[in-house]
Every structure is written in structure tokens, then in C-alpha cells.
Design brief:
The complex is a heterotrimer.
Chain A: H1 2-9, E1 22-25, H2 34-40, E2 45-50, E3 53-54, E4 59-61, E5 65-70, E6 74-76, E7 84-86, E8 91-94, E9 97-99, E10 110-115, E11 121-123, E12 126-128, E13 132-137, E14 140-145, E15 148-150, E16 163-174, E17 177-179, E18 185-191, E19 194-196, E20 199-201, E21 206-211, E22 217-219, E23 222-224, E24 228-236, E25 239-241, E26 244-246, E27 256-267, E28 270-272, E29 276-281, E30 284-289, E31 292-294, E32 298-302, E33 310-312, E34 315-317, E35 321-325, E36 338-339, H3 362-369, H4 380-391
Parallel strand pairs in A: 1-2, 2-5, 3-6, 4-7, 5-8, 6-9, 7-10, 8-11, 9-12, 10-13, 11-14, 12-15, 13-16, 14-16, 15-17, 16-18, 16-19, 17-20, 18-21, 19-22, 20-23, 21-24, 22-25, 23-26, 24-27, 25-27, 26-28, 27-29, 27-30, 28-31, 29-32, 30-33, 31-34, 32-35, 34-36
Chain B: H1 2-13, H2 16-35, H3 39-68, H4 70-77, H5 83-112, H6 121-148, H7 152-180, H8 187-195, H9 198-210, H10 212-215, H11 221-228, H12 230-257
Helix pairs in contact in B: 1-5, 2-3, 2-5, 3-5, 3-6, 3-7, 3-9, 5-6, 5-12, 6-7, 6-9, 6-12, 9-12, 11-12
Chain C: E1 2-11, E2 14-24, E3 28-33, H1 40-48, E4 55-60, E5 63-64, E6 75-78, H2 90-100, H3 107-113, H4 129-141, E7 147-151, H5 159-174, E8 178-182, H6 186-192, E9 195-200, E10 203-209, H7 210-217, H8 222-238
Helix pairs in contact in C: 7-8
The chains are: A mainly beta, B mainly alpha, C alpha/beta.
């Protein structure tokens, strides 16, 4: 990759270099077709498109190339075709508005498809009304950064994913804003990749979706108001740090779904106002630490077959239910958390409550049996019921207990920075001026 | 009627019980605010309190006032005043003074802590409104019970029982029947059953504010429609209004037929 | 002025009034007498509309009272037990009643008569029984009503006030009013009443002037006359 940077990335900076040409395309230029511009370009050349509206069907990029848009040229698929297909390594696409891919039930059309390539960079584009946004298959060593991808998906079957990766390695997905697709970001068989600082909201299914992907990290992303926040399935060694999961509401909605996930760490995240903060199923050796769970319906639901969990040093604040644990895992740990409805005392003033806390309420058990009884939440009768269960536990699991409940909340918990939201909130569909509409800073990606 | 209301109100406003009631709320609210200056938490704590205390105190107060003013009522009955005006006036006087104690007792500390201008203003107003409505509903129920029963001990007993029924027993029966019927679709039943109890109804209004995340976890379409849209708020408010009107009409009916 | 026809009333199984027919069409003072529970207060309350009769009609000033309330400003009523809202002061209570009944009131004269002025700013809850009865009297007599009902008017009064009350009643009589008094104090009856209605077990046992009562019972004293009537009734019943 570094070799490529030396050969290609540095060239546009020294425009005078003999062996790199710049081809200008604009509606009034001698070259007024993007397709023609690409055809004329040699390896490592730059094609600069200055403004204009181009509906030229599919653009195939089959050579190492910089394709740069200035003044937001529009590439329009007119609802008929895939727009850009990248079939060469070392391609850089930046500064375009790419619109109207059109729904297809037979093929996965995308605004930008990356087909078995490496060392690509897709940056600061504005994708609108794309079926699939950026579709990368069998590709590696790439960057997808600062793109806004807005669709108008209403239902799962007729929508595609905003960023879709399939059999990829070492991809960085940074500061993108996706909305209105099936999944905001979809990863299947994607290893050693980083997803950072993205905002994924109002997607029909998931904000971020992992399948069969190992050794990935996602951090400081925001997942808001999606069908469900993040689903991590059948994967190993995933690091989840400093993300914000917010307002994922619905009968099967959750902030984070873990299904057959092993050896992973969930640290410093904030789960706020989700129907279920974390739903974990058959997931072993997971560390949950320093997370904030605030005003969720259930902070965590842990169902069968979850062994060796460590739930420590989290804050549970104002959730309707803190924990619903339906697993017999004897080696699960729940110690050292702050529970806002802990009612114990701390006589020795060491900051740790002297009475163990049982975070699982009887009513939580009742609700899982008879969901309609939820309507009785916070009633005096239910409080009495919970109290009597607390005094002498019969129904709630014996080992779900915090032996060292904190008296005060952890202030160091959650590394979410709200300013980290990659793009300012604007009306969906309204395009933003990009922060970087030039090549400046392009070489910062790999720092 | 408004003359009677005015006199009952001013009579109660000067009663030491009103001050104790008002002072209790003020002390309670101040201490909550002092312990945790987080307005939202205090509003949540008070929401739990309002469901319990407002009905209880309104019930006790209503019964007590009716029995205490029995002879005074007779004096009024001999005056050229319409019968229903006397009872409705007295009832409204009790309900209004209870509401005033609640609003002042809770409102004053919050005002000092600057609730308006904070994000909690909406929830706070909702809290006040629920307290007022519950005071109206339960003092009406209390008046009705007292009118029906000449025997004070019996009247007090029944009033307490009524409160206990609405506050605890009703929910117990509902929960039990829900678990027994869990094989069947009980979605509508549970919703209707909760709406029929004024305390549950107020609780749902509070749930809509505090626990919307959990409530949205329902699979049932009726629940989601009721709770997830403005419908829940509108229906709850409407039924609460019915809950005020219904006991008042009963008071009227009983008062028309009663001997003194 | 007042006409009662076939008035029946029972409280539960207890038949309190069993067909009362009464007419009061002349001004005068009538004492309604009878043992406890004979229905004296019930009759008065029925006329006031406080007790709703099971059957029978009552007319006041020629108007059937059923469902009406305005006719009550024709009647001044002194209830048996006077308990008032404890937190009001005497002055406020008087003002309030004046507010409810907007006929012209002569409260000042009555207040002076019973020397209530020092108590005007006191709370009713703090007054003695006698003082309350005086307040009660003020509320009754401050209006110029053609009909006056007095239910045990002397309860708790000191001798001076008693004298003044008698004077007041007498004065009202001279103004041509119809006055009904229930009492157990026979001296009062003897002093004031022109006519006696004697109730027994919900029926009118005797109605007539004091003189007739005495003649009938061959006694010179009302108290004895009444006692004799009662005894006679009991022997008749056991015979």
C-alpha cells in the first residue's frame, strides 16, 4: 500500500510531474463526457470533472485513476443502471453527487461497486437514492470516508445497504453518514477492519450489521433510530468502543444484538432510550465494561447459553428493567456496577454498598411470561411484588447479583463524545458542503 | 354554587390540614431537589408519589370534610339555595383546595430551582396536571361514599377500601387474570382494564413519558397504536375527564334523593 | 301559608310520619310537642325540603314545594344543633349567609341583642355551645320571613339571653308571623304558644289551643297535661 501512495497519491500534489496527466471534463470543455475522460486517461492520471450533470449509464474504471469532482458534478443513473464500477486497484473517487441507481429485485446495483480491487479510496461523495450505496466485494486495503448516503427505503425486501462489504479485508469506514437504507453498514466475511465515527440513522433494519466477520473494531459511531442499532452475528474478537446507541425502538428492536459472538469487548459505549440496550444470545467470553445504560426498556437481556460474561463497572440509570438474565451460566460476573435503583447503604464509606444488589426484578420475569402485564409497570402492586421478591428471592436466578454495587456512578464510563458525530444533523436529502472537496488531507488516512 | 365553592375553598384554605398537606409536599420536594439537583430524577420520584399520595389524601380529605361540615350543610339546606349547588360547591371547594396545596407544595420548590426553561418543563406540567386530576377524581369518590353513608366509621372504612382497591387490589387482580389468560390474546383486555382505573390511567400517562422505550417493545399492534401515537395521550385524558365527571354526576344524583 | 296533606315518611323500616295533615293559615305561635322520635323535626325538615317525603304534598304560600328551592327565603329556620365551618369567623359566616340569601337582613340589631359583637372576629371552632346558639339565632332572625321554625331554640342559652329570645319571638308574633317551635321546655310553651300540636308515633294526637289542652287533660299545667296525654295513650295501648 505504501508503494502505491508513493507512486500515485503524491502525484496530484506535484501537478507538474511529467508522467501524470490531468484531464478536465466539464459540459463546455473539449472533453464533455466522463466516460470519454476515463477512456483518454492513462494509468495514474487524474480526471477532474468540473460541475455538470452526466447521465452516461455505467462508468467502468479499469485503470489506476483519480476521479475528482469539483463543484459537485452529478452522476445520474436515471434509475436504470449501476453507476460506477471499479475494476482496478488504486482508484480514488472524490467529490461527486451520485444519484438514482434504481431498485432492482434481480441484481444488487450500487452507486459505486468495488470489484475485487485493493488500495481504493472513496471519499466525500454524496449518494442519493441509491439502491446499494457503496458495494465492495472481494476487496482489501481501502478507505470509505466522509460520504453521505441517503436513501428512501421503506421496507427490507425492496432496499439495499448503504455500505455493503462482502469478503473484504482491512477496510476503513470512517465518518460516513448513512440513512434510509436496509442496513447502514453491512459486513459479511470482513476481517481486520475499522468502522469509526459514522452516523447511521433511520435505516430500515440495522445501523451496522456484522456477519461472519472477525477481528474488527468499531468505535465512536452513532446508531440512532434504526430498526435496530447494531447486530453482530457469528463473529469473533470484535471490539466495540465508545459508540452511541440511541432510540432504537420496536418490538424486536435493540441497541446491540449479539448472536454467537465470542471473545469480544464492549467498552465505553452509551445505550440510551432503546427498547433493549443489549440483547445477547449464545455469546461467550464477553466483557461489558464502562458502558452507560440510560433509560432503556431493558438495559440488557441475556438469554440462554451465555457463559463467562463479565458485566462490571457499568452505569445502569433509569432503565425500566436493568437486567433480564435467562441463562444458568454460573461463572458470569455482575460486580462493581452502579445501579440507580440500588437502595442499600454504605456504612464504612468505601464507595461500595454493604448490601449486595439483585438487579433482576420479579416483574421482569412476569413480563417475559405475560408481555401484556407491562401495562402494570410502576404500579404499587408491582412494587410490593418486587419488594417481597427482593427480601426472599424465589423466581429470580440466585447468581445474578452484584456483590459490590457502587454508591456513585462511574464518571469515567462511556468514552462517547457527542461532538464526534461525523456530520452535522441536516434535513435528509439536503446535500451538505463537504469538509474536504480537494485532495488535501488524503494522505492522513493511514496515520 | 360558586358562592358555596368560594366559602368551602376559603374555609379549607385556612384549615391547618391544608397547610400540613401543602407543607409536606413542599418539604418533600425541597428535600428531593436538595438531595439530587437533577430535576428529571425529582420529577420521576414525584411521579411515583403522586399516584400514591394524591388519591389517598384526596379520599381522606373528602370524607373528612363532608362529615365535618354535616351541620353546616344542613344550615345551607335551609337557605334558599339549590340542593345540588351545595354539594357540588362543597366538592369543588375541597378538590380545588387540595389541588392548590399540591400545585403550590410541589410547584414552588421547582420554580425556585428553575423548572421552566429546563427540558423537564413538559414532564413537570404533566405531573402537576395528574396530581390535580387525581385529587378531583378521588375527592369526588370520597364525597360520594360519604353521602351514601351516614355512619362515619363505615364511610371512612369504605373510602380507604376504595383507595386500596384502585391503588393496589385492582392491579393485583388484573395481573393475576393476565397471567391466567396468557394463552389468549389479552392485549385489548389489559388496555381497557387499565384505562378503567383512574390511577392506572394516570400511571400510563407517566409511563408514556418515562418508559416509552420499554413500552415500545410490545409486539401487539393495539398497544403500539395506543402507546406509540398521540392516541394514548388523547384517550387517557378523555377517560380521566370522564372519571371526574362520573362521580360528580353520582354525587348530584345521591344528593337529590337524600334526607337530612 | 303552610299546608301538609297525608305526609308519610319512613327511614328504613322506621315509620316516622304516618299520614300527617296540618294547616297553618293564621299568624300565631304553634308549639309542636311530642316525645323523642315522634317526628317533630322531620315535619319541619320536610317543609324545608331537607327531608323528601315518601308520599303526601306540602305547599308553602300556595305553592307545592317539591323540587323547588326559592320558597325557602320565606322561611327562617333555627336548626337543633348548630355546628358551623370551624375555620370561619362569626362575621364571615353572617356575611356568607347574607351573600346566599340576598333579602334585606337586620343582623346588626340581633347581634346587639345577644351581645355577640365581641365574638365577631372569633373562629366558630373556638366558640362555646351557648355562643354558637346565639350565632344560630342571629342567622335565623336577621331576615324578615313570614314563617319561622325554631327547633329547640333555648338549648345552651343563659337566662338573660333566654329572656331576650322570648321577647324576640313575641315581637315577631306581633309582626303577624307564623311561628313553629319544637321544644321540651314546657315553660316556654306556656309562655309563648297559642296553639299546641301534639305528635305521637308519627301521627297528630292532639291539636288545639293551650286552653283546650288543659281542659282535655283536666290539668292546669302544660307539663302535666302532656304527661297525662302520654299516660292515657299508654294505658289505651296496653288495654
Amino acid at each position: 500500500m505504501f508503494r502505491w501512495i508513493l507512486t500515485c497519491f503524491l502525484i496530484p500534489m506535484g501537478q507538474g510531474a511529467i508522467w501524470a496527466n490531468n484531464i478536465l471534463v466539464c459540459p463546455t470543455c473539449p472533453v464533455f463526457s466522463v466516460k470519454e475522460g476515463i477512456r483518454l486517461a492513462g494509468p495514474c492520471d487524474t480526471v477532474t470533472v468540473d460541475g455538470g450533470h452526466f447521465a452516461e449509464g455505467n462508468l467502468l474504471i479499469d485503470k489506476e485513476l483519480w476521479l475528482i469532482g469539483k463543484n459537485w458534478p452529478v452522476l445520474d443513473g436515471e434509475g436504470k443502471t449501476e453507476i460506477i464500477t471499479v475494476a482496478s486497484n488504486h482508484v480514488h473517487i472524490e467529490g461527486f453527487k451520485i444519484e438514482n441507481v434504481g431498485t432492482s429485485y434481480t441484481e444488487d446495483r450500487a452507486a459505486i461497486r468495488l470489484q475485487e480491487v485493493s488500495d481504493f479510496c472513496i471519499k466525500n461523495n454524496q449518494l442519493k437514492n441509491a439502491f446499494f450505496g457503496i458495494y465492495s466485494q472481494h476487496s482489501k486495503n481501502g478507505i470509505i470516508e466522509g460520504n453521505t448516503i441517503h436513501g428512501e427505503a421503506k421496507e427490507e425486501v425492496s432496499s439495499g445497504n448503504a455500505i455493503h462489504l462482502w469478503y473484504c479485508d482491512n477496510i476503513k469506514i470512517i465518518n460516513n453518514w448513512t440513512s434510509g437504507h436496509r442496513d447502514g453498514i453491512y459486513l459479511e466475511f470482513v476481517n481486520s477492519s475499522t468502522i469509526k465515527g459514522n452516523l447511521s440513522e433511520h435505516n430500515v433494519r440495522y445501523g451496522l450489521h456484522f456477519m461472519f466477520s472477525n477481528d474488527d473494531n468499531y468505535l465512536q459511531n452513532t446508531f440512532r433510530n434504526n430498526g435496530a442499532g447494531v447486530a453482530v452475528m457469528y463473529s469473533k474478537r470484535i471490539g466495540m468502543h465508545g459508540n452511541l446507541f440511541e432510540k432504537n425502538w420496536g418490538p424486536s428492536a435493540f441497541g446491540l444484538l449479539l448472536k454467537e459472538i465470542h471473545d469480544s469487548e464492549i467498552e465505553g459505549n452509551q445505550f440510551q432510550e432503546n427498547t433493549v440496550g443489549i440483547f445477547a444470545e449464545t455469546s461467550n467470553r464477553i466483557v461489558y465494561t464502562k458502558n452507560n445504560f440510560i433509560q432503556n426498556g431493558w438495559a440488557m437481556r441475556i438469554s440462554g447459553g451465555c457463559q463467562n460474561l463479565q458485566i462490571t463497572s457499568n452505569n445502569f440509570i433509569g432503565n425500566s428493567f436493568d437486567l433480564a438474565v435467562h441463562t444458568s451460566g454460573a461463572d458470569n460476573k455482575f460486580d462493581g456496577n452502579f445501579w440507580s435503583d440500588y437502595a442499600g447503604y454504605d456504612l464504612d464509606h468505601n464507595g461500595i454498598g454493604d448490601v449486595p444488589h439483585r438487579p433482576m426484578k420479579l416483574f421482569s420475569h412476569v413480563v417475559s411470561q405475560t408481555p401484556e402485564s407491562m401495562i402494570l409497570l410502576r404500579s404499587l402492586f408491582v412494587d410490593i411484588l418486587n419488594f417481597s421478591e427482593k427480601v426472599s428471592p424465589i423466581f429470580t436466578p440466585e447468581n445474578v447479583v452484584d456483590n459490590q454495587p457502587r454508591m456513585k456512578k462511574w464518571t469515567a464510563a462511556s468514552t462517547v463524545k457527542t461532538t464526534n458525530t461525523p456530520l452535522p444533523k441536516a434535513l435528509p436529502g439536503k446535500f451538505l458542503q463537504p469538509a474536504l472537496n480537494s485532495q488535501e488531507g488524503a494522505d492522513n488516512h493511514f496515520k | 354554587m360558586f358562592k358555596i365553592l368560594k366559602y368551602s375553598f376559603f374555609d379549607l384554605i385556612r384549615s391547618r390540614w391544608t397547610y400540613i398537606y401543602c407543607g409536606f409536599y413542599m418539604l418533600f420536594t425541597f428535600s428531593l431537589l436538595w438531595l439530587s439537583s437533577d430535576l428529571s430524577k425529582v420529577v420521576i420520584s414525584l411521579m411515583n408519589v403522586v399516584l400514591l399520595l394524591c388519591p389517598l389524601i384526596a379520599t381522606m380529605f373528602g370524607v373528612m370534610y363532608y362529615y365535618n361540615s354535616r351541620e353546616f350543610t344542613e344550615l345551607l339546606l335551609a337557605q334558599p339555595v339549590k340542593r345540588t349547588s351545595i354539594f357540588l360547591g362543597q366538592y369543588l371547594g375541597v378538590a380545588a383546595s387540595l389541588s392548590a396545596s399540591w400545585v403550590i407544595g410541589v410547584g414552588f420548590p421547582f420554580l425556585i430551582y428553575g423548572v421552566f426553561g429546563s427540558a423537564q418543563a413538559g414532564n413537570f406540567l404533566m405531573l402537576l396536571l395528574i396530581g390535580v386530576v387525581l385529587s378531583f377524581v378521588f375527592s369526588a369518590i370520597a364525597f360520594f361514599i360519604a353521602l351514601k353513608n351516614e355512619n362515619r366509621i363505615k364511610g371512612f372504612g369504605l373510602a380507604i377500601l376504595a383507595w386500596l382497591f384502585f391503588a393496589v387490589i385492582y392491579d393485583g387482580i388484573l395481573l393475576l387474570s393476565l397471567s391466567l389468560l396468557s394463552e389468549y390474546p389479552v392485549e385489548k383486555f389489559s388496555l381497557i382494564a387499565s384505562v378503567l382505573n383512574p390511577i392506572d390511567l394516570s400511571r400510563i400517562l407517566i409511563l408514556l413519558k418515562l418508559d416509552i422505550s420499554a413500552l415500545m417493545g410490545f409486539t401487539g399492534a393495539v398497544f403500539r397504536k395506543f402507546l406509540g401515537t398521540g392516541l394514548g395521550m388523547v384517550v387517557s385524558m378523555a377517560v380521566l375527564a370522564v372519571w371526574v365527571v362520573l362521580p360528580v354526576l353520582s354525587i348530584r344524583r345521591v344528593a337529590m334523593r337524600k334526607d337530612f | 301559608m303552610i299546608s301538609i296533606q297525608q305526609l308519610h315518611k319512613s327511614f328504613g323500616t322506621n315509620k316516622v310520619l304516618r299520614g300527617i295533615d296540618l294547616e297553618f293559615d293564621q299568624p300565631g305561635i304553634t308549639a309542636v310537642l311530642g316525645p323523642n322520635g315522634s317526628g317533630k323535626t322531620t315535619i319541619i325538615k320536610s317543609i324545608l325540603g331537607m327531608v323528601l317525603p315518601d308520599s303526601g304534598t306540602i305547599s308553602v304560600q300556595g305553592e307545592n314545594i317539591s323540587g323547588k328551592w326559592r320558597y325557602r327565603n320565606q322561611i327562617a329556620y333555627l336548626p337543633q344543633i348548630a355546628r358551623f365551618p370551624e375555620n370561619l369567623t362569626v362575621a364571615e359566616l353572617i356575611r356568607m349567609v347574607k351573600d346566599l340569601n340576598t333579602s334585606t337582613a337586620q343582623d346588626e340589631a340581633i347581634i346587639s341583642l345577644f351581645e355577640l359583637r365581641p365574638f365577631l372576629d372569633k373562629r366558630l371552632g373556638n366558640l362555646s355551645g351557648g355562643t354558637r346558639q346565639k350565632v344560630n339565632l342571629v342567622l335565623t332572625f336577621m331576615y324578615d320571613c313570614p314563617i319561622i321554625f325554631l327547633d329547640e331554640p333555648t338549648a345552651g342559652l343563659d337566662p338573660i339571653s333566654m329572656v331576650r329570645l322570648k321577647e324576640l319571638i313575641h315581637q315577631q308574633r306581633l309582626l303577624g308571623k307564623t311561628i313553629l317551635i319544637t321544644t321540651h321546655v314546657m315553660s316556654l310553651v306556656e309562655e309563648l304558644a297559642e296553639e299546641v300540636v301534639f305528635l305521637l308515633e308519627g301521627q297528630i294526637h292532639f291539636r288545639g289551643s293551650l286552653k283546650e289542652l288543659k281542659e282535655k287533660s283536666e290539668e292546669t299545667n302544660v307539663e302535666r297535661a302532656i304527661a297525662k296525654l302520654l299516660e292515657k295513650q299508654i294505658t289505651e295501648m296496653s288495654a
